[in-house]
Write a structure and sequence with these properties.
It holds the Pfam family adh_short. This protein is an alpha/beta fold. The protein contains 8 helices and 7 strands, in the order βαβαβαβαβαβαααβ.
Length: 252
């Protein structure tokens, strides 16, 4: 009998990452739930009797990534599916008014972090001739908007990396996919606006945004395709959105 698949989800403590953990657990997978904040993950692991391995991990730290993923316990390795979800946006000001520290945090997490984790997991997948990398991008990687210059650039990099990665592993049996969500209501906007809940709430005012579970459903659907099928990329919008800044807001 085949063992349950092992899924590694980064940014797993909240939002889309946490929803992906729940969705894969519901399918019987074992999940390595990686995040910097592990208190929530410890609670999750306690509820799922050995099916979740909480892993304290800062994807920006390459040495820590290599050490952690190189020493996973036998029942949580090898990694069959990697969901590169860790990412964030910081600030919404014009480039010339930005805090450069925000640039560094976005570049280090959204781009270098994705590369660090992929670089630790992909060699084993290629060697075994199987595996699936699913990168969580954004519609912001397909277009740009005022105040999002660096964030959009990092998500465009995710799209380029995903395409190149797929070419690099071609013929190895490894799949590479990308999911680009539009407006999803998570802690994303609170983080972006440095804890300003009022500014975050205004982003979703008058619209019904996507929920984290909606994206997790797409991720598990992609992962569940037959071996010969690769869903290369999926763009997901709520009904009230048709692009960045193209929002139908209801009054009252």
């Amino acid at each position: 009998m085949a063992h349950p698949p092992v899924v590694l989800v980064t940014g797993a403590s909240s939002g889309i990452g946490r929803a992906c953990v729940d969705a894969f657990l519901a399918q019987g997978a074992r999940v390595v739930a990686a995040a910097r904040r592990t208190d929530r993950l410890d609670e999750l692991a306690a509820q799922h009797d050995g099916a979740v391995l909480p892993l304290a991990l800062d994807v920006r730290d390459r040495d820590a990534v290599n050490a952690a993923l190189g020493s996973l316990p036998e029942n949580f390795s090898p990694i069959d599916v990697l969901v590169n979800n860790a990412g964030l946006a910081r600030g919404r000001t014009p480039l010339h008014e930005d805090d450069p520290d925000d640039w560094d945090q976005m570049l280090d997490t959204n781009v270098r972090g994705l590369l660090n984790v992929s670089g630790a997991v992909l060699p084993g997948m290629v060697e075994r001739g199987s595996g699936h990398v699913i990168n969580v991008g954004s519609n912001a990687g397909r277009e740009v908007y005022p105040g999002g210059t660096v964030y959009c650039a990092t998500k465009a990099a995710v799209e380029r990396i995903t395409r190149g990665m797929r070419m690099d592993v071609l013929g190895s049996g490894v799949k590479v996919s990308e999911v680009d969500p539009g407006m999803v209501e998570t802690e994303f906007s609170v983080v972006r606006f440095h804890g300003d809940q009022q500014a975050a709430d205004a982003v979703y005012e008058g619209v019904t945004p996507l929920a984290a579970q909606d994206i997790a459903n797409v991720v598990t659907w992609i992962a569940g395709q037959p071996p010969h099928v690769v869903i290369a990329d999926v763009l997901v919008y709520p009904l009230d959105q048709a692009g960045t800044g193209k929002i139908a807001r209801r009054k009252g």
